[in-house]
């Protein structure tokens, strides 16, 4: 392809991008497909096609184009950086690390590569390793707003709040309208307890960027709404009429849903949540998850666990709070973290990642010999030392630190082998409230949470998995804590948790909302309030919409049969659902 042809195709791509930003998605797609057929693997054209796919919100297709570019020009650190960042956006973390390290090896002074590496470690919640690449990128390009924003966010996670504020203020000096800059400022203020400052900051962002859905989403997370806020809700709904990227529209719809829910306008709330979830719909195969759970249960039998755990790390420091997302894990973490000897690390991805690496698709059966190779003393020592280093970041002298990743519930056999002395707290909540809250939450990566029916299937899988682990792990390893019981009688159940993890009672744990420090939760505002009871039995407000969910989780609702009937929900009779539960 000659230079003139290349230039013409790139101009067409730029025209498609312009149409897309103006809301004409169908016309932009037509141009994309025409240019794609004519591209002839030309690197400049493929690169621009990749950028256009990112604007469409199709990161998988963008990666296809970037991989072509790198195949044609393999020794470009700049192009490797583009591919690495795309892998990050697609949650392909291992691929991202490999490509970004190649880029840095070719040229350590490529800002995009260093920034990408920093972003990789941020995604792994390994903030100590993220600092170096981000600071290097900042020195190379001190006026790069995106780099400085990520540096500020990372510093905040390490409780270096003054440095974080200095960097985010500098970023906003460079770009006063930076949406992400304002969001990180909100994050820093809210997670250090300045909720008034955080609210003012996000309200300022809404005025600056009235069509930036993430601004409304953040506002919805940090405050409650009343009928007095209806003009603001109408403003948010008006913004939907304008063209905006699908991700921002999704953010905005989730925010509107939460606003209406706060105001008690439940039909309007559900309509917004439903639209948001339809827009966010993602390819998801629950059969793959079922296969993984079966493989884990086969591998980690009681007998195998007994053999394998002899190589485990003896530390009692990790405390794993697991369960269905939105089941009170954050409240339980904050209670423990408010103890003078307690700490909270948020939701660490390391255990989930390790489990998936051990049992990739197509390799789901392993002999005891293979497991012993995978979990040799040398490998366990390295993994657990790295895990403890991440767990302990900025936690001072804490002797018990919580990893509250709910998805760890699937990997409890592996966790017990790695840390046989660790305590596992199982956060439980009413099935309908837990599942409905997942549907209403704007998760970044839970692809199963945009359908009530699929959420029900995932809930059933989680419950079956927990029943298995409770049967094979040593008695006392897992302690069940019911969310509703905790909010009704906080002291009794806080004492139970502290006793289970070996900490003396301290009344400070009931005043967690007063404690300064980093909070990582879907609803930051809740962690700065006293324990509240308004989230109990929330499902009653949405009973008429819950049919697809109830059909999937009926076996777990039997104790609530009468109350469900009062709200128009009839559970199936007979043994059909029981057979499905045990089958």
**Major beta sheet, strand line-up:** 2-3-1-4-5
How does CATH name the architecture of the domain at 286-582?
3-Layer(aba) Sandwich
- The average pLDDT score comes to 90
Radius of gyration: 25 Å
CATH superfamily membership of the domain at 286-582, which one?
P-loop containing nucleotide triphosphate hydrolases
CATH topology of the domain at 286-582: Rossmann fold
CATH class of the domain at 286-582: Alpha Beta
Ends: how far apart?
Answer: 60 Å
**Uncertain segments:** 575-583
By secondary-structure content and strand pairing, the structural class works out as mainly alpha
Tell me the total number of β-strands: 5
Description:
- With 583 residues, the protein is mostly helical.
- It has a domain at 286-582: Rossmann fold.
- Helices cover 62% and strands 4% of the residues.
- The protein contains 31 helices and 5 strands.
- The protein has a 5-stranded parallel β-sheet with strand order 2-3-1-4-5.
- Helix 5 (77-89) runs parallel beside helix 7 (111-123).
- The protein is globular and about 75 Å long.
- 44% of the residues are buried.
- Mean pLDDT is 90; it is low at 575-583.
